[in-house]
Amino acid sequence: AAPPATQAQVESLESFIGAFSAALEAGDVEFVWERLHPEVIAVSDEATCRAWVEAEVMGLSGYTFIEETAGPVTVQGIADVYVATVGFDFGGQRFEDQLGQFALLAGEWRWLGQCR
User: What are the residues whose beta carbons fall under 8 Å from the beta carbon of 4, sequence distance 6 or more?
Assistant: First the structure.
């Protein structure tokens, strides 16, 4: 008989942010794109979101987790959203104490943003 299935361990938010940061540093646009919450794309359109990810989001560096500040909450109809304080570099400037939003979707962390 096969062993019983075990529940896969969900990565911590801090661990996901580390992977997100590593993907930004490596220029791994596919990882960053695949982990964008589908509801973010649904309120805009895929072409706009992909252009935003490639032109702006991939320009972030030094993306760091500082602390989890809230969650789970529902934001704009998206359940299981967690808010974390993060820091990052963009356009030659360091931004600290920024609020990032992340949601669990089918046991996998996704990030939230506003395509523009």
Answer: none
User: Whole-angstrom distance between the N-terminal and C-terminal Cα of the chain?
Assistant: 52
**Residue 22's Cα: distance from chain center in Å?**
12
Ramachandran bin of 17, using left for φ above 0, alpha for ψ from -120 to 50, beta for the remaining angles? alpha
Q: What CA–CA distance (Å, rounded) separates 62 from 87?
A: 7
Tokens matching residue 8: 């896969």
Q: Where are the beta strands (DSSP E) in 4-60?
A: none
Q: What is the CA radius of gyration of the chain?
A: 15
Mean pLDDT for the chain overall: 93
Task: Walk me through the domains of the chain, giving residue ranges and CATH numbers.
Answer: 13-111 (3.10.450)
Asked whether 54 and 62 are in contact (CB, 8 A), the reply is: no
pTM higher than 0.90, yes or no? no
